[in-house]
Design the sequence.
């Protein structure tokens, strides 16, 4: 069955960077775009962008352009999302989601990133 | 950006009730509309795509309808496991945007 397994919780200081991983299994990794969505505590869902695991091409939400980087390693079927220059506003759960024709089919379990001095 | 407005923001219902949640887009999105269910501390679960198509494994008590700007999610007979927060999302154009959520609580 399809599984998206994300890396564990992180605690970072303001100004630092964080890199979250999403390991895929149960399907052809390069066949589906991977999106990243975040959710601040008690808040709604916010789309960050996607990566095409086949080509490495990306599309970021304008809000995140210049400080998010999405990459992938096809040899281990893993997608990554790196966010730099962290502030307390970036404290959130970060999810990866497998997309098919634009809609999400599967979600990772989420990774809590806490930014605190 | 396309704004997605859900109503109500919360509702109280009893087991067995029929529940309807509305999602309105600020501009036409054809049928590029998805619905998700999220329980506390858990990842969202995909329920419906293309406004009315059920994801694999989702029970038929969930149904979606609409096109253009107005959409609905209906739960035909609410069960204890259905108490959760529900979100709509448009995937017609970037940036993808979500509704603010509807929390379904036990009456």
Sequence:
């Amino acid at each position: 069955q399809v599984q998206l397994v994300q890396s564990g919780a992180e605690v970072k200081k303001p100004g630092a960077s964080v890199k979250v991983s999403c390991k895929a299994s149960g399907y052809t990794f390069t066949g589906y775009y991977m999106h990243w969505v975040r959710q601040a505590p008690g808040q709604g869902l916010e789309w960050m962008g996607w990566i095409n695991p086949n080509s490495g091409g990306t599309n970021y939400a304008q809000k995140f352009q210049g400080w998010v980087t999405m990459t992938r390693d096809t040899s281990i079927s893993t997608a990554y999302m790196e966010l730099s220059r962290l502030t307390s506003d970036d404290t959130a759960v970060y999810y990866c989601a497998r997309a098919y024709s634009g809609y999400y089919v599967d979600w990772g379990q989420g990774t809590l990133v806490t930014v605190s001095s | 950006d396309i704004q997605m407005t859900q109503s109500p923001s919360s509702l109280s219902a009893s087991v067995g009730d029929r529940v309807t949640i509305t999602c309105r887009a600020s501009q036409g999105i054809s049928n590029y509309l998805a619905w998700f269910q999220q329980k506390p501390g858990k990842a969202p679960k995909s329920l419906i795509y293309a406004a009315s198509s059920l994801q694999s494994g989702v029970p038929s008590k969930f149904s979606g309808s609409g096109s253009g700007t107005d959409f609905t999610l209906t739960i035909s007979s609410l069960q204890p496991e259905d108490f959760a927060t529900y979100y709509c999302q448009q995937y017609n154009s970037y940036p993808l945007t979500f509704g603010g959520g509807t929390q379904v609580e036990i009456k």
Summary: The longest strand of chain A covers residues 92-100.
